[in-house]
Hints:
This protein is 40% helix and 23% strand. 46% of the residues are buried. Strand 7 (173-182), helix 8 and strand 8 (202-206) form a beta-alpha-beta unit. The strands form 2 sheets. Strands 3-4-6-5-7-8-9-10 form an 8-stranded mixed beta sheet, with helices on both faces. It has a two-stranded antiparallel sheet with strand order 1-2. The protein has 293 residues and is an alpha/beta fold. The chain is globular, with a radius of gyration of 18 Å.
Amino acid sequence: MAQIDIDQQVYDLYDEYCHGHMSRREFLSRASAITVAGVSGLAMAQALLPRYAEAQMISFTDERIKANYVEYESPGGTSGKMRGYLVQPTSEGPFPSVIVIHENRGLNPYIEDVARRFAAEGFLALAPDGLFPVGGYPGNDDDGRALQRSLDQGMLKQDMLNSARFLKSHELSSGKLGSVGFCWGGGTTNYLAVEMGADLSAAVPFYGAAPNSEDVARIQAALMIQSAEDDPRINAMWPDFETALNANQKSFERHLYPGTRHGFHNNSTPRYNEAAANLAWERTVAFFREELG
Length: 293
């Protein structure tokens, strides 16, 4: 089912579901009450659910990369321990490094695939699993979302901060670190930019919540902000964020992609916009190459 075949009412319900405001059962139930031009809202809703196997772009057996799971200390986090998916190029290092931060449901296959995509471009990539201290990503997004919502959010962000520091100091890292994140991970990328100061060289939040305006002065990383046109909650934060960035003379650029919705980079659901996702990816890789070397 193509993006245009799904009614806006169903998209709105899906956005609430994705952000934890309703259960999967309620999402499907409410969607089933909708019929547009003879098409069931339930069919539209089911088409929006992720299809990770079909969406994989870089196989874990790709000869350009080497991937494995690593564990490391995380003081002040949920349990004091963390695990992440570390992907390195097979060429000789050290490499500029990129931390890839997941959405609000743990380290799912889409985010692992994004980490592999960065490694194929020559970066050392780490995708931490914020759910590792409570058993790890459970294999489906519904349970993952519930698990992530149950965590102490301050400790979860500390786990991401410790993950970034682990990657920056890794023996295969050049010491130049970038962060990219999607949805919750986009907001957490902004959080890292505030907390890490000069230790973070570049940050690319995809449709992520803006930091508090009073914290923007602490940012030293160059920012590339990737925004969807149809994303009212996130876009409402932009004017204050832009004002604070300009007032503090920060290095930033923002790209707003016409005809896109929140989540347009995620190619496992019909919210995916191939043209915009490809352009955003090209810009992100070029930006990291420029800022990280």
